Amino acid sequence: MANTPSFVRTQMLEPQDPPLGEKGVVKWIRENLFSGWLNSILTLVSIYVIYWVLAHILPWALGGIWNAESLSECREIRDASGVGHDVACWAVIGARWHQLLFGFYPSELYWRPILALILFGVAIAPVLFDTAPRKLLIVTAIMPFAAYWLLWGGTIWGPIVTALGFVIGWAIIKYGSATLGALGATIAAIVVPLLYWLFVAGAISGALGSALPIGIESVASDRFGGFMLAIVIGVAGIVMSLPLGILLALGRQSDLFIINKCSVFFIEIIRGVPLIVWLFTASLLLNYFLPPGTNFDLMLRVIIMVTLFSSAYIAEVVRGGLAALPRGQYEGADSLGLDYWQSMQLIILPQALKISIPGIVSSFIGLFKDTTLVVFIGLLDPIGLSNAIRADAAWNGIYWELFIFIGLCFFIFCFLMSRYSMWLERKLQTGHR
Amino acid sequence: MKKSVLLGTLAVAGLAAGAVSAQTLDEVRARGALNCGVTTGLVGFAAPDANGEWEGFDVGVCRAVAAAVLGDSTAVNFVPTTGQTRFTALASGEIDMLARNTTWTFSRDVDLRFEFTGINYYDGQGFMVPRELGVSSAMELDGATVCIQTGTTTELNLADFFASNNMSYEPVPIETNAEAQQQYLAGACDVYTTDASGLAATRATFEDPSAHVVLPEIISKEPLGPLVRHGDNEWGDIVRWTLNALIAAEELGVTSANVAELAAGTENPEINRLLGSEGDLGGMLGLSSDWAANAISSVGNYGELFEGNIGENTPIGLARGLNAQWTDGGLLYSPPFR
Hints:
The structure holds two protein chains of two kinds. Chain A is mainly alpha-helical. Chain A folds into three domains: 36-92, no CATH class; 155-216, no CATH class; 221-428, MetI-like (MetI-like fold), CATH 1.10.3720.10. Helices cover 72% and strands 1% of the residues of chain A. The longest helix of chain A is centred in the last third of the chain and has 31 residues, at 340-370. The radius of gyration of chain A is 30 Å and the shape is extended. Chain B is an alpha/beta fold. Chain B has two domains: 22-122 and 224-328, D-Maltodextrin-Binding Protein, domain 2; 125-220, D-Maltodextrin-Binding Protein, domain 2 (3-Layer(aba) Sandwich). Chain B is globular, with a radius of gyration of 22 Å. The chains are: A mainly alpha, B alpha/beta.
């Protein structure tokens, strides 16, 4: 006789909750923070250290004083309020934030750099995000000249006439190739605009300016300062160094002897010398070569130097991307009958740049932070301004508040850049999985 | 635009490289503004205020020269210079004069080919120590750790002073005055040494200034003054005599308040010559006859400039000391306006 079970459950039991120690926050804490006696001790020590640091910083920062005219007034307010510890004197930020952001730019014209920054955001959108409408690329093309005009002001004809030079070069490439041949058109597209800028542009813009004076109040470079200076130098350097860097990388890969050697020479010389030396060269040495009284703007010299410096680094990063491409990609491009520029544009560079993105962005972040080095040649960037603010008798002796503010601003910019780079990497799937 | 400026400049550079700027005065007049090199920021001597206007004791010298030359004390482009860039900026013509608490030394005057046009502040290197150390003289500093700015004359003076007194010290090298204040307050060094004016300004910012003493010894001579390039003596004369005019004005009792009244003519012939109602001293400089009156009315005489920026009623609180008129036991002594 078969065994007849005395009891058979006919319906499922409701699952019970796991024990308290095996679920939710408690489980996470037990597994991650207190999984053994050593880890428990380390956790407790860490918590104490964090507490200790915050207990010193938070009352100082959060209890800070925002309304005061000077450091000594801050101290009087603090003593009067009877708190027993040091407190931050944020009043210096309240009094001088506009200087830290805009330098000595006339305050009634602050809308101009702000508008330039917004325009820059619009202009860069089609480059950064492929979902942005393509028509925005027109803004991108106009942007460098519009930004120059907005920031420095003056007659509108200068930037327009200068932009015309690029149009001439583009037109020669586009329509001149048939008659001049590819190489001839390329050379002409470089030489003709140069001649135009050197000998014609000044006269035209002068004539137009006197015939039809449209312009806004001009602002001299020495009014620039603070983050505006850092951003102008950083962005100009970044925007101009990327194309230059790609050209240099291609030049270094080139089979043409002179181009190859020139690129190698340029890259190695620039990279072999610290940026601060180049900045001193721009500010000191160039002065001796230029005739006295020539007003070759210091900021312009710095932008040029920063661009050259950064382009050498970008070139090496891009070269790494080029070298990482399998030989077959180059041969494949050749076998399709593409000429050099077509194969670069359609096959090689899209892949190489994709690989190089992390390196390029980290170069840019470095470049942006390196702009603080201009303090050593007497330009008033945020760090330089913090020095100048301290030289005001009212604020002499104030340090951390200024440096925390400057550090936060830099962090925001650099963090955004690095987040963008990570987003782009994920989107493009640069890993060879 | 940028490219065009660069290439245009290079082209112009090639054409004009031969021209030497012997005519600074004409250049300043054509430009309509004086390019004056100042420090990037030193309490009381030069600093931009919240509106970006430069003010301070050295800035006052720049404004006085601008007022004398152009009749407008605001027609100045202030060029912030660092310790490294100041001399090149002047030598290359980027600035017309340098008023940047620069010590007048032999090698700067002769070897660097500059011309110091006078002394607007007699400074000297001193020491500051916490009161609780109980030190009352620099001779008791044997074995002390000293915060010292690198690459300055103060560093060399310090070594000389300790060596000549058979004492030893341990230097704590620092880069800027701001860093020095923090290091000193944090106790990284027993002693902070720099120019006495800087010590006074630093001490004034401390929470409790009375907890620190500036020792009586001054171990070096630091005559600070404005300077110009070699090779344009007319311009050097203008800067020199503008400074002298400020000093003489104090001696003669001419202030920014009464200069307009006195310029109409007084009993004192020297005041008349200074302010242009008698003789033609301005014309000899190539300036208008009211050059000195313009300078004095815009920035005040030397005493007003001193009291307004670094004097005893300011947070810095410097006493006149050596910088008093010779009639008051100081060293200020302007040659006669004759």
